[in-house]
């Protein structure tokens, strides 16, 4: 059983807690948030979860195997780095960081620690997207030269990142998954 600590209980954190609690091989063991009211609601909904206002309690807990980071974007790098260095596997909401150098640093630390570092690109697990990939791989659609996406918001308006950082990563991760390669050209307008 994988014991997961969820850091950040705003919009997405409670969803992660619920999902980890319903999976056969994991349990939401502990969660952290600075907001005491959020933690109170979590305790009312998920009776057996431990709560703390200090995320480092999760990182230092010997029973926690992995962390899920659902905190504001500007905290992702620091928390992910500390979690990896504490020997935890990391699932982080996107974006992992706003600085590519920090992403490469986290990738290196994860490799050195032999830990999984994963960004929450959830759409690559969507049944519809998986089916499209099957069509592409079968050759039924022929060679793909062009892909187009329109994105709308899936949650609350975010103030910690702009629309590019909030919405575009989903489409980019879908295209990278579907085509198994990086794009040659990208354009956007808003």
- Order of strands across the main sheet: 3-2-1-4-5-6
H/I helix tally: 7
Question: Main beta sheet: strand number and arrangement?
Answer: 6 strands, parallel
Low-confidence stretches: none
CATH class of the largest domain: Alpha Beta
> How many separate domains?
2
**3D shape:** globular
Q: If classified by CATH, what would the architecture of the largest domain be?
A: 3-Layer(aba) Sandwich
For the residues shown, what is the average pLDDT? 91
- As a percent range, the share of helical residues equals 40-55%
* CATH superfamily grouping of the largest domain: NAD(P)-binding Rossmann-like Domain
Rg estimate, integer Å? 18 Å
Note the beta-strand portion: 5-15%
Structure summary, number of beta strands: 6
Q: Strand-and-helix sequence, N→C?
A: EHEHEHEHEHEHH
What does this molecule look like?
- The protein has a six-stranded parallel β-sheet with strand order 3-2-1-4-5-6, with helices on both faces.
- The chain folds into two domains: 119 residues, 3-Layer(aba) Sandwich (Rossmann fold), CATH 3.40.50; 57 residues, no CATH class.
- It is of the alpha/beta class.
- The chain has seven helices and six strands, in the order βαβαβαβαβαβαα.
List the helices and strands and how they pair.
Layout: E1 2-7, H1 13-22, E2 26-32, H2 36-45, E3 50-52, H3 55-60, E4 66-69, H4 73-85, E5 89-92, H5 100-113, E6 117-119, H6 127-138, H7 163-179
Parallel strand pairs: 1-2, 1-4, 2-3, 4-5, 5-6
């Amino acid at each position: 059983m994988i014991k997961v600590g969820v850091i950040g209980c705003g919009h997405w954190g409670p969803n992660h807690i619920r999902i980890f609690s319903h999976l056969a091989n994991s349990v939401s063991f502990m969660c952290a948030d600075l907001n005491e009211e959020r933690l109170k609601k979590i305790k009312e909904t998920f009776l057996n979860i431990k709560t703390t206002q200090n995320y480092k309690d999760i990182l230092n807990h010997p029973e926690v195997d992995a962390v899920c980071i659902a905190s504001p974007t500007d905290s992702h790098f620091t928390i992910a780095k500390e979690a990896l260095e504490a020997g935890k596997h990391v699932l982080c909401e996107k974006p992992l960081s706003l600085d590519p150098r920090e992403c490469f640093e986290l990738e290196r630390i994860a490799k050195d620690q032999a830990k999984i570092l994963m960004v929450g690109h959830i759409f690559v697990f969507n049944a519809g997207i998986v089916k499209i990939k099957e069509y592409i791989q079968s050759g039924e659609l022929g060679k793909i030269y062009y892909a187009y996406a329109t994105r709308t918001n899936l949650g609350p308006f975010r103030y910690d990142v702009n629309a590019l950082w909030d919405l575009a990563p989903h489409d980019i991760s879908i295209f990278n998954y579907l085509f198994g390669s990086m794009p040659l050209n990208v354009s956007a307008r808003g």
